[in-house]
Amino acid sequence: MVFSSLVFLCIFLPVVFFLHLALPGIRAKNIMLLIASLLFYGYGEPVYVLLMIFSAFANYLFALAVGRMEQKKKIILAFAVILNLGLLVVYKYAGFLVSSINGMFGIGIPVPDIRLPIGISFFTFQAMSYVIDVYRKVNPCQKNFGKVLLYISFFPQLIAGPIVKYHDIEREIGERKQTLPEVAEGIRQFIAGLSKKVLIANTMAVAADTLFASPEGSINIAVAWIGAVSYMLQIYFDFSGYSDMALGLGKMFGFHFKENFNYPYSSGSIREFWRRWHISLSSWFLEYLYIPLGGNRKGKVRTTINKFIVFLCTGIWHGANVTFLFWGIFHGFFLMLEEWVPFFRKAGGKVKQTVMHIYTLLVVLVGFVFFRADTMAQGLYWVKELFTGFHFERAAQSLALTQLTPLYLTVLAAGILASTPIREKVKRFKGYETFSYLVSMIFLVLCVLNLAGGTYNPFIYFRF
Fold first, then answer.
1. What is the largest CA-CA distance in the chain?
2. What is the pTM of this model?
3. Burial code of 332-355, b = ≥16 C-beta within 10 A, e = fewer?
4. Among 167, 221, 421, 447, which lies 20 to 30 A Cα-Cα from 414?
5. What is the CA radius of gyration of the chain?
6. Could you list the active site residues?
């Protein structure tokens, strides 16, 4: 089940929300939320819900053992990490690894056909962070398995993030309140995220998916730029839209998750971009990989290597494809460039800020071309056409012009505007609160009409 579906909006969410309001006591509310979350995941993954429960139970036992066996906690933690990463390797990377080995050595090992469980990267990282934090004594081990399972399986953040740390919501699992202002703000934030996904991301997805599926001979500079910009907006409004929906749903039920996106396309460097993009993932790698590797405490060369390793792993985390691996290396390269080249570290005026902003957007756009491409060859061809595709055959021109419908151009303008911090400025005006709720209701109606009309509604997290 996904948030941008009529089943979720018209049946699942209203029923769960009103049950949460009506049930007396936090224990009854938690039991209901746990059952609802398992049903939510089981709706699309009836078999793999057992895998998620197994993962949660195994990490629950590891955390108990870490908390009780001080002298052996390093060994226990090592087993926990091996199990969690092992699950990812088996379910997410086994086919890719076997295919790569077959291609490298010319052998014919049967490639396992294992369907990827939705959200496995998210719930595995949450489970690992829980055990690691118990090891570090950031939070005590939780003796109630039901609370651990609720933390890992809670439906707002289960299949698309953000990655939530246990200590951030530990208190709210045991004690929380639903207040009218918080619920109202949660509903508004959920609708904002839903609008990002349904009205902007889905519209951009039509153009992006059409163009990236087109034969190479029909791609020129116009097609390449329309496709690349469309995907750049699609992935931002899809990712940030789901994060906003998760944060809004959390507030509706009395939980508070941390922001996951902070206008990343307004960044002036790749370093700043990663402080604003998918913040929960960046902070996860910072806390559980970069700092244990030594962080920036062991000299400039070691710091650069550590950052490169982190971004290599970031690319691998996103999926079992060479394109994801390259995307991580690509961002790691520009982070190293910014670390070593003095130009990037020196302060500058408005001209330099503009240049840096354009540079950042170009790097991000080119990176996303590879992220979206099915193969490295396709990614390289598209990047070549982005900058040298000055050929204007009728087929290419027709393909480009057919995307530029009035709807597309309107949504494109809205998406570019909404990707800037303009909302933060508008919030200062008197009457913003009342006006924003009115606009939210209008957007909700538009989203429901779009979904009821069967418009294009891809779920890109199947790849992750």
1. 72
2. 0.93
3. bebbbebbeeeebeeeeeeeeeee
4. 221
5. 23
6. 318
